[in-house]
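Q: I have 372 residues here and want to know how they pack in 3D. Can you give me a structure?
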Amino acid sequence: MKIALLFSSKQGMARTLGPVLFEDRAEEGEEPPPDLLAECDSDETITAVEQALQKFHRVVLIESDEQAYLRLMEEKPDLVFNIAERLFGPNRESHIPTICEMLNIPYTGSDPLTLGICLDKSRAKEILSYHRIPNPDFRVIERAEDIPPRLKYPLIVKPLYEGSSKGIKDNSVVSNRRELKAKIEEIRRLYDQPAIVEKFLTGREFTVGVLGNYPDLEILPIVEIDHSQLPAGARPIYSYEAKWVWDRPEQPLEIFCCPADISDELKTRIEETVRETCRVLRIRDWARIDVRLDEKGVPNILEINPLPGILPNPEDNSCLPKAARAAGYSYDLLINRVVWEAGKRYGLPVDFYRDVFRPATSSLGLGGADGH
């Protein structure tokens, strides 16, 4: 098949949106937030995904800029492998899938509606709450002056429409009204969006990779985030600092345990919660879902990532590839498993993958040369 790899590179997004990122802010005496490009793809990731797809397909690379629509019209791929997250707006992850639907081009991953809902944390939580899937109590606060009285602390404060821990810093857990006010004002200033304010859960934290389509989901080995490995005095959260500053390839934090050391009962409860989340939000092909236990030990959904991070090097501590390796997948086979799942949905000629993915299982044939 001919596959178009659609991505949002750091250089491409900075170049395309340079006036918005830098010039306009500079005129107003502002700097862009340091984590602005955190969700964009590195050259290393783009190359790794391209090489994985080339094992079985012909691949063209397309930046998710203003030329993407025309490039897709010209190339007419059989399938788009979508990892494009774009930069601005609550629907930015929906841009490329929407274009694909306009052009009637099959694509990997969830549809525009699901991507938009999952990026807008409040909308996702409203749906989860309707279906009685546990998640932390929350409210959306537009401005600091809208803070209601008599809130119960501690709380955690996040930008409403961000991922990759953007805007979630070590000081995002607040203990009083003054700290809450400062965080809401910071989010409005840096990200130009409301804050979502949640009850801070104090239990163990996990992230769970999922492959496939409901009801045929493969729940990958659960990853636990061990907060005790954070620097002394750090808040027990997987913050921007933990993900991008303290955890470096040359000196990785030993913060992850995969498979998580948990009881069979807890493993089952987490997997059931994740499975139901995929059903009600109509997640397709792949995802990574963050879970934390409340004070009663009940698994709560923190975040849903239908476009999960896929940094290729084990030293980068990217959680979905880490969980996939624990299940016996090489990086190349993880990427091609997503193609297989999408291809089955669309009725594309992907039956040959059955020989590649002999019962999921057979970790015999899935390890590849990666060895991790």
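Q: Anything worth noting?
A: The two ends are 29 Å apart (CA to CA). The chain has a mean pLDDT of 89.
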